[in-house]
Structure formats: structure tokens, C-alpha cells
Amino acid sequence: MTSYAEAAAPSNEPTRRAATRRRATRAAGRSRSTAGGVLWIVVVAALAAGVVAVNVAVLRLNVGLDKANRQRTELQADVADLQSALSTAAANAQIGGDGQRRLGLVPADPNTTTYVQLAK
């Protein structure tokens, strides 16, 4: 005769196998989900690093552009100063030439120039 435990053993065998399979499937699912989570973390970290790298590059370009704009402004101021000096020099020569032509004026001879000493 077989006991109740012996009779139940064969019917429990498929249940044990199914439970073992479920545990194995859950463990595999966890490792897949863990691997997927790690993969997503790596992808997001790479994208964040790319965004930071692009922002640094843009910042460097902006600094260079700002420096170039400052130099351009300084050069424009220098050009304006030079144009003013040139205009003044041209005006002095023009005034001297007009005085000689129209009025017959001539520059004074430095040897004949006398200076008056004023008392203090």
C-alpha cells in the first residue's frame, strides 16, 4: 500500500517544477530589468554629458565673440580719432593755402621774429 504522502508526491512534482520555473523566470526578469535600467542610466548620462559639452563650446564661442566685439569697438574708436586728426591736419593746410592764395599772406621768418617779455 502506498501512503498518502507517497501518492501526493508524484502530483506535487509538476507543481515544484512550475514554482522553480517561476523563480527562474522572475530572476531572469529582474536581471533583464536591471540591465535595462543600467542601460538607460548610461544613455541618459551620455546625453547629459553631450549637452554639457555643447554648452561649454557655445560659452567659449560667446567669450571669443565678445572679445572680438570689444576689439572692433576699440578699432572703430581709433579710426574715428585718426579721421579727426586727418581732418584737422587737412583743414590747417587748407587754411594756410587759402591765406596765401586769396590774401597773399606768407609764413613769418623765424629769424626775424622777436618775443616780448611780460613782467610777472
List the defining traits of the structure above.
rod-shaped, 1 helix, mainly alpha, about 120 residues
Summed up:
It is built from 1 helix and no strands. By secondary structure, it is mostly helical. The model has no long low-confidence stretch (mean pLDDT 83).
The count of helical stretches stands at 1
List the quaternary state of the chains: single chain
Share of helical residues: over 70%
Rough shape?
rod-shaped
Count the beta strands.
0
The structural class is mainly alpha
Q: What separation lies between the terminal Cα atoms?
A: 150 Å
Any overview of this molecule?
- This protein has one helix spanning 4-103.
- The protein is an all-alpha fold.
- It has one domain.
- The longest helix is centred in the middle third of the chain and has 100 residues, at 4-103.
- The protein starts with a helix and ends in a 17-residue tail after the last helix.
- The mean pLDDT is 83.
Secondary structure layout plus pairing:
Blueprint: H1 4-103
